[in-house]
Amino acid sequence: MELFDPSDIQLQSELAKSIANKLLEKTAKIGVIGLGYVGLPLALEFAKKGFMTWGIDISETKINMLSQGQNYIEDLDDEEVKHAIQSKKLIPRTNFSEVQNLDVIYICVPTPFTPTKDPDLSYILSAATDIARYLQKGQVIILKSTTFPGTTEQYLIPELEKSGFKAGKDFFVAFSPERVDPGNKQYNTHNTPIVVGGINQESSYLAALVNVQVIQKVYIVSNPRVAELEKLLENIFRSVNIALVNELALLCERMYDINVWEVLEAAGTKPFGYMKFLPGPGVGGHCIPIDPYYLSWLARSYDFETRFVTLAANVNESMPYYVVDKAIREIAKQGVKLSEAKILILGASFKKNVRDLRHSPSEYIIRILKKAGAVHIDYNDPHAPYYEVDNISMQSVPMSKEQLEQYHIVILVTDHDAYDYDFILQNIKCRLLDTRNGTKHVTQHREKIILLGYVQN
Ligand SMILES: NC(=O)c1ccc[n+]([C@@H]2O[C@H](COP(=O)([O-])OP(=O)(O)OC[C@H]3O[C@@H](n4cnc5c(N)ncnc54)[C@H](O)[C@@H]3O)[C@@H](O)[C@H]2O)c1
Known about the structure:
This protein has 14 helices and 16 strands. The chain is of the alpha/beta class. It folds into two domains: 2-221, Rossmann fold, CATH 3.40.50; 242-451, NAD(P)-binding Rossmann-like Domain (Rossmann fold, 3-Layer(aba) Sandwich), CATH 3.40.50.
């Protein structure tokens, strides 16, 4: 691995030299396919740096919003998006024919799993088929979607080569995973280092030269497979460590009188060899619940079972069930039938202070509660006014005194900063099942709190 230094760049072919010159002169035309949490911030960075940038998405809703200068990603500055659109530096389109005019094409489309948790590459393949129709000599294609090792070479390139051009010779290909952390105020696209693995040296250099226009530090690895696996490792690392503290939380509940949150806070005082992870009602988003399965699926084709990785995923997946069990026990203690109990979920998004609802623990908790017989389930989320679970639309309820008084249990799933726990505890007539230790600073009405990971004698 090497830290990329643009002054060290060695390019042989005229095609590669020509694209490098365009990048250095800032005349290269940049394209971003898929304008979601990853693609739109990236496209905006290029537009802000003065590059003509085309954003292509199959969602007409998103393209229409952007065309009117409207932003839909919480972390982005509305005015910056509006300015990029109005100044025509960022050009939103649904049509792939724009691809023929581009020099660089990033692919930032979803990589979900199938209902049986196998990788679903259909979005990457569909984007690749559309790109291949308009592919031109000399273009640099950079895949950013998280995926298993081998995707770039065994799936993306064959699709792109249907254009009749040869990868590595006529056009350049690299995998360069995304590290955006929605809601993170310290690290953004610009100051988060990134890794690049090209299919040959020219592809690596060119992809690094593209990235370095908007990202401070770029590291080059030997090939796309290394970059693909390192991305999975980043997310699986989180999955495994979250599973560890989730298990510890459950053990603390068994042991009585050891508060897992205090244990974790104490361990966090060690300045080396320890990293803070917190237990909770489960994992969510488009990365941590999915990526372990991308690796375990691939491993099976090598007669290898990723037992540790799968076990961690299983522990995390069991958490919503555990939370529901606790909630049902609390309702039963009140002598109320589950079918008549009124339940409030606080926080629908998968992590605090963001709007992203994908694979959120709240979705699983609502589904499991319904399967168990619960009927009256409300939710509140200051970031997500609407929520749909299993095709049933819900609307966030207000956090008023009258509203809070109605419930038999309130479950804190996502501890948004906007929540006023003193107000909530003062007004609920039931108990608050706190799965995030959001109430840690509350001093009044603590008897109303049921805390995940701590049972007092
Ligand atoms: N969200 C994150 O925090 C994050 C972080 C790191 C990596 N990733 C990875 O980045 C990839 C994208 O994730 P995201 O969160 O931005 O997803 P997203 O769902 O927010 O955005 C993807 C966009 O791609 C569009 N799209 C789908 N198919 C398309 C096609 N064929 N052509 C054009 N557009 C298409 C969708 O309409 C959508 O707007 C995934 O592989 C994800 O695992 C995401």
